[in-house]
Structure formats: structure tokens, C-alpha cells
Amino acid sequence: MTLDEQIAQMTDPQEFTRLCNTVLTERYGRDYQVIDGTRADGGNDGYIISEKRITAMYCPIKPERRTDADYLEKIRSDIAKAQSIRNSGKYEIESWTFLTPRKLSNNVVVEMRKYAESIGLKAAHQESTYLANELLRNKHLIGAFPSLHINDVDAKLKEILGLLKTPHLEKQQAKEQLGADGIYKGAIKDNEGIDRVLEIRRSPKSEKTKPTLRSIYYQSSDSAVKLNALLGLLDFYDPVEDAAGDMVQLCNEGIAIAEHLGASSVKAHILAQKGYRISFIYSDLDMKTAFQIRADNAIGFQTITEEYRQGVVNQLKDLEKQFDAAFGEALSLTKDNNDFSAMAGVLVFIGNAAGQRALYLQRLNVADRAASEKAACRRALLTAKEVNHALGDELGAANALFNLANQIRFFGETAEAMELAKGAKEVATKFNDRRLSQRADRLIQTLETGKMPDYLDGEHRE
Question: pLDDT (tens digit, 9 = 90+) per residue, 166-200?
Fold first, then answer.
């Protein structure tokens, strides 16, 4: 969620007022007069001396229940108060600005300006976009607001694209700790144990696959064997069979093992997996809560209390901070290690997570946020492709484009997805990559037939 989207979700009037005053004080300095919000302000929430501008800050506790008529009633009331203050001679007032977390409809803005003009005032409206831009120009202010944070993944993507301009990037590539097949290449003490793990991971999945890998993970005393068994469990993840929360815990255990082995690039890979799982939990919680609220509104009976809703909002913010932090740390580790191959792998997880969030937001008809996540999805996956291309890794680039195909099919780009899937299939055949070949075949079949398993109903592919 972008910074402006986070501000748009604010429902605490005191916190929103504090944010507005902080931003305006930073921008105008002594030219801005803060009004004590704990007292009756008589319609004056703040005053910009040089502009002879009075401000009114309004943060509804339940914004989803506010209609255009509700906003216009509030606007007319506050403008009337501003007129009274001007007529009293307490302040020189020529302009009036209405600040809210969310955007207002065009009809509301038009009516607001007309009403203000009728009494000799110029009216304007500012919302989360303005406040977010001011915060991004003054990032030191954000620390004062625990509920807000900056997603630094976009900044890291720009930095990565800059690295791709480095001549002969492939010569700077560190020795890989994790192979293209997802196998940790570190020192192995238990040769028999690792042979067993590799045999399982390279064989088709069966009902015994995950129980056997878990048994090896529990029993082995060789950290490298344990790590490879754990990586196998992550690779064989099934959203129907495996709880995302359990997978996050497994990732935490894998991160600890990777740290013990000094395998920082493997740690980055598992951090990216962790970020992806947390993003899944975030999406699931947000979607279910939104549907429940919409159902309540449809029947006219509230089953969700405001306290519960606010608790969910806080939980979502925490989950978002967690997956942003996991992705950010993963990218930093690969960059510091000059492991650009691992970096491309991390970018694939980032792109897929963004695509997943775009899909549920699309279902909820939240167009602005869905478009933002779609753009992030494309940006990350195309950057992964470019990184692999710079390394001369044709198979890695094909894998990134396959993942892009798997995402854009949900964005209505089925023809483009088909071309990308067929291209991935050709490269997979060229390099005898059975896993990518199988995944490409399945995607091509889905695009051709329009049929796919109903995973929510427990169905699986044949």
C-alpha cells in the first residue's frame, strides 16, 4: 500500500489533525498558526498568515458511511464558521481549504467552490495525495506517525536498474549459494541424507513427498541437509493443504539455519518466500473483511463492530510492514553479496506478491489500488528479466517472463500471456528444464481451455 493509500485509510480525527499540522508547519514554518485542537475552534483548525487562508480538517471515523450530502453539510457548516470569523475581524480571510484523508467527488468539490464564492471566499480541497507528497519530500517527519511507512521496494528497483548499466555485470556475479533448481550448494556432511532429499525434490510430487521431507528435516543433524529439506517443503507449498502462517514459521526457521551456515543469499531467498506468504495472509484478511463489511451494508445490519474493524486495519498495516521489510532485506542482502541471480529470484517473489494483491483488489473493484499493484507486479518481474538478461541467463529470463504471463492473464492480457508462456516453453525445452516446461504446459492449457482447478474447493490439477 502506497503512502497516500495509507493516509486515505486514516479514521482517527486527532491523528489526522496532527498529521495535517505537522505537514503544514514543515511547509510554512512560522507562517502557519496551529490551533489547539482540544478546544472548540469555532471553525478554525489552522491559519496560513501570508495567504490569509483558514483550514478545516475533517476525518470521519466511519468514512464508508459518509455520502456526498454528508460532506456538503460539513463543508457548508465550516465555511459559514469561516465567514463568521472573518466578519468578526479576528482574522483576515480570503481563502478556505478543506483537508480530508480521502478524495471527494467532483460534484462535492464543485458545490464547495460555488458556496464559498457566494460569500466571497476561494475554496480548495486537499487529501492524501498532497499530504503523502509533502511527507515524501520531508521523510524525517514519517517517524512521528507509527501507522505510516514508506515502501522502499520501488526505490530499490530503481537502484537495481541503475546497476544493470554496469559493464560486464556477469563478471561481478558472486558464486551462487543456491542453484537454479533451488538446491543449497554448501558443504554437506551427511551424503546419504542429502542424496535422499535431492531424490525426493527431483521426483514428481506424491502424497509422501512432504511427510518424508518433514521427517528428514526433523531428524537430520546436518544443517545443510535440513536446509535443503526445508527448501523442498517451501517449493512444494500448496495453498489448499498448507496454512500460510505455518509456512511463515517454517521460513523463520530456515532463515535461522541459513544465518548459521553463513548462506546469506539463501537467507535472502527464504526472506522473499516469507514476504510472499505474509502478503498472502494480508490479501486474504483484507478481502474477507471487505466482503463482510459489504454484506453488512447490504442487509443494513452491522455484524462487525468499529473496534473490530479498526483492529483489522491495524493488523493489515502491521502485515504490510512485515512483508515490505522481508522483501527489502532480501534485496539488500543480494545486492551486498553481488548475487544478482539471487536478486532476480527475489524480484520474482515481489512481483508475484504484488500480482496477487492486484487480483483481490480487482475483485473488490478498488481500481486505484489494483492499478498500483499491477504496475508494481510488472515492474518487479520485468526487472527480474532484465537482471537475468544482463547475466546472460536465458533460462532465468524465461522463468521471469513465465511468471509475468501467469500474472497478466488475470489482468485481461490473455493473448500476451499465451505468447510469453509459449516462449518460456521453448527455452525450458532447450535447457531441459522439466519443471518450467511442465508449468508452461499447464498455463498454456489453462489459457486455451479457460479451465483451472477450484483450489478454494480443494481441487488439484491432474
Answer: 665 565 655 666 776 678 877 778 888 889 998 99
DSSP-derived secondary structure for 21-56: HHHHHHHHGGGEEE--TTS--TT-SEEETTTTEEEE
* Nearest-angstrom CA–CA distance, 11 and 119: 31
Listing DSSP states for 200-220 in one string gives HHTSPP-TTHHHHHHHHHHH-
Q: What is the DSSP string of 175-198?
A: PPSB-TTS-B-S--S-HHHHHHHH
The DSSP string of 283-324 is: HHHHHHHHHHHHHHHHHT---S-HHHHHHHHHHHHHHHHHHH
> 145-172 pLDDT, tens per residue?
888 877 666 667 777 777 766 665 565 6
Domains of the chain: 3-144 (3.40.91.30), 179-262 (no CATH)
Residue pointed to by grid coordinates 497516500: 4
* C-alpha to C-alpha distance for 428 and 442, rounded to whole angstroms: 13
The set of residues, in sequence order, having a beta carbon less than 8 Å from that of 182 and lying 6+ positions away, is 201, 231, 232, 235
**Residue-wise pLDDT tens digits, 203-253:** 878 889 999 999 999 999 999 999 999 999 998 888 888 999 999 999 999
Burial of 126 (0-12, 13-18, 19+ CB in 10 A): middle
Task: Quote the cell numbers at residue 209.
Answer: 513427498
Question: Please, what is the angle between helix 394-408 and helix 367-390, to 10°?
Answer: 170
Q: Which residue has the cell 528497483?
A: 157
* pTM (global) more than 0.90: no
